[in-house]
User: Fold these one by one.
Assistant:
Number 1:
Amino acid sequence: MSHEPLNIAVLTLSDRRTLAEDSSGQYLAETLVSAGHRLGDRQLIASDRYQLRALVSQWIADAAIQVVLINGGTGFHPRDCAPDALKPLFDRPVEGFGELFRHLSFNEIGTSSLQSNAFAGLANDTLIFCMPGSTNACRTAWEQLIGPQLSIDTKPCNFVTKVSKSN
């Protein structure tokens, strides 16, 4: 089995949790390393569209970061700002991610999946996935969508070839 490790940043948006209490970010960080990737950075910030946009813009401009995983900020609470903050940064949206995530979530949480604004896109050859903040949602997204697409072995296509920035 061939493998190309990617540099992945993990960001949690939360007004209530601390990094020590962040089980979703911890899950993503541990799981990506277990899959053979490198944790490029891990942060937790408040749900503020301008802080979010500034941090993600730094990662997009950083040649060392190839993928960004963001959890939280995708619901319908007034402080959920990820879609409005980040979609303008995308060069190209990955429409199927949100659609497939909601389909998979429907099997787990029923019609509550309608309240997920999970989305993804490419910006400056950086792949950005935004998912709900629950650990179960992060597990569903990683195991069924993100993890397989970050493997060079996924055929007929995967995203490894799309994140062309050097390691």
Number 2:
Amino acid sequence: MMPKTAIVEICKKYKVYTEHYLNAAADKTIILVNGSLATTASFAQTVRYLQPRFNVVLYDQPYAGRSRLHNLHGRPIRKEDEAQILLELIEHFSVHHVLSFSWGGAATLLALAQRPRRIEKAVINSFAARINTPMRDYLESGLNFLQACDRLNVGRLINSTIGKHLPSLFKRFNHRHVSSLAEHEYRQMHFHVNEVLTQDIHCYAACADAIEVPLLFVNGEWDEYTSVEDARLFAAHARQSRFHTIKNAGHFLDMEHPAAWHDTQQALLGFLQPACGTPGQVRNLSFSRESAPI
């Protein structure tokens, strides 16, 4: 099913491209928050198992994808700005659930800490409570490439680190996607990496302390960058937290291979709709070529 697309104005400051997958049989809506350098296309695999159960909302950050033509890019956007955008979209689309991926988890936790009245549950994929040594090495290696707008080496770095467990097709798509980015997107990512490396990581624990809705943290068994162990540090702070490990998967979870897609589907639907079974025959799965995994 094709989504209904729209440009939504946020606080008279940003114009955000959105995709709304409507399901006449669904009574709940879920919004998906993507990671750095990503667009709505990065959730192509995830929408396939969510749309039969929910209304699904995707969006591009103001600096990325189909939003970037509608915004000025003189100043980088902070994670607090991204959290406010998410809160506005939650109200605009009457959202009940949130699902974030990777560094989209930062804005999601900040938003949830403000206790939006509509939200019932949230899933935080591939996000951890601290910056460990592999993640720090990855981010520090990327700073010079981003500052120089070195598209070739940014693509190589992503594919050799957090993306190393992706299929070769997706690695090629990653490289093509990174090569097409505008210079302001590299400036935004450089700002974001500096913010991550210098911020007080305890702010995420403080956010978790303030969140009242149930949270599910999902991490890949092989993900050394946002590891299972580091994610479980949230257990001491999030009062209603659950944790799930996707076996034989790295950072990109449901994009990496059919079994990981199936297991991620089971974990998410089991948490969001525990009374329902989860459909799908994994042996018949074929990945879409239209997804951009970053």
Number 3:
Amino acid sequence: MVKLNAEVKEAFLKSKVIPLATASKDNVPNVAPMASLYLKDDETIWILNNYMNKTATNIKETKKAAVYIYGEGIKGCFQIKGDAELISTGADYEEAKKMFLAKKPNFPAKELLIIKITDVFNCSPGQGAGDKIL
């Protein structure tokens, strides 16, 4: 697993909505905006599954995901890839459900998507675009 550095963590924490990319076992891509997300630690992203459909199916099929961090007030542009799993029981699920529902109590909180970070790439234009940075 890869640990995020201060620059990438700061960008993640400033993001309100992050696009989550997955692909099916037949390599059909899917991107969906995620707002119920949390940086659990330097190696782990938590995203609550409230309304995932194709995304959840893709995660179950391929166990891979990527997020893209870019926007106003964010220094740099980062693509974070990782190994992904969905869980609906256990301590992590219960902790995440409680935390997210405290802010948005009307969401269904069906599952917790856990992404263990494996790679981080620079996606800023210019020299170094596409370079693996972590």
Number 4:
Amino acid sequence: MYAIVDIETTGGHASANGITEIAICIHDGNEVVKRYQTLINPGKEIPVYIQALTGISNEMVATAPVFKEVAYDIYHLLQGHIFVAHNVNFDHSFVKYHLAAAGYDLQCNKLCTVRLSRKIMPGMPSYSLGKLCHHIGITNSGRHRAGGDADATAELFTLLLQKDAENAIPEALKQRSKEQVLPPNLHRKFMDKLPPTPGVYYFHDQKGKVVYVGKAVNIKKRVASHFSGNNSGAQRQEFMRHIHRISYQECGTELMALLTEAVEIKRLWPPFNRSQKKLEFNFGIYTYEDQRGYLRLAVDKRRKYSVPVHTCSSLLHGRNILLKLIDQFELCPKFCHIQTNTETCTGASGEVCACEGHQAATDYNQKVNQAIEGLKLSLPTFAIRDEGRTNDEHSCILIEEGRFYGMGYISQYFEVNSLAQLKNHLTPYPGNDYMQNMVMNYAERNPTKMIELVPIAEPMSYSLSSEA
């Protein structure tokens, strides 16, 4: 027996919204044998736009029973039957959530008439209930009301049962089948193609736009985990509705997958990726020349197109680095914006410091250049050579002077003899501090996979203060 369900609600997710109407059609596999329908008082105001859509007003539900008063009847109509709905995960999430709040644990198999329609009747211009029914000639006199939509879904389901020449419905009901947990608009073939390897996967919307990028040690297993569970929150419901297609790219290792994910999030800026959009360090150490020709160092917020001498996780982090440089290279704390008062300079030179005009700009600037060069030399240049996507290749990640340069794949027979040579085989990517720290931490844990390299000497150049 099948229980064909449709509900009207006050909003899009169960945990913060109520049901205003429910209709259940009990179907024996040939026809509807029993109907149940009732308005429900959701215990909260129905938004105006939903009143306009459904025609259900606050006045209509004022005297209706609350859900707990009808939970017994609803539970016993559904339990032991197969729960059927158009976009079943939406209706099921609401009913299960509110039954649980009333003390009933609903456990039943599910069937989605959106997914079944795509399989049994491919090529339709739309699979929304209204447009699909109009296209195949099913009349719905109560659109956006639970009774009318449940009756239309029941008629659609009868047609699907009749047309199911390839046994899509019995296959979907098999215990091993995860068909009904998938998003309503996602075809099973995309899941079947996913490999059990490290890599990055992409969820696309109806127009092909990437709405989410993820990384995994096992792509197939990780993607499946997105669709398990019964999370009834707004974000998950919205997320599931937007998934129409999945693509992927394999990576040699989990680290390569992590870095590729970070690159792709910055490139594509998917709407459902939130965690990595604010992971960059916000400060940097900059150098500029003042009006008297003295080079100065300062910690400042990162700005677009500015290139800091060094990146910092915080203002305090940057100040601590400057304090070390001041002490090691006898720099002026005033010229490093550490000492901001008008008293005598607290640096090693004291009253004869550059800030008092007792050192020529060329002499002082030489110390600043030495400090910058010392800071750069303290930043490592190395490659991580690790497993590839196939047996005859290796993955390779390059850090140059403490900054992420890029990554790629090289032959397992390729000998890394120089930095310049290696760069010709890798793809540069715009890195960030999150990526750099990830590689640094991995190198610290896996020193045998590191290849130390000599930095390429380049003439130093400095940006003006307007860039800082």
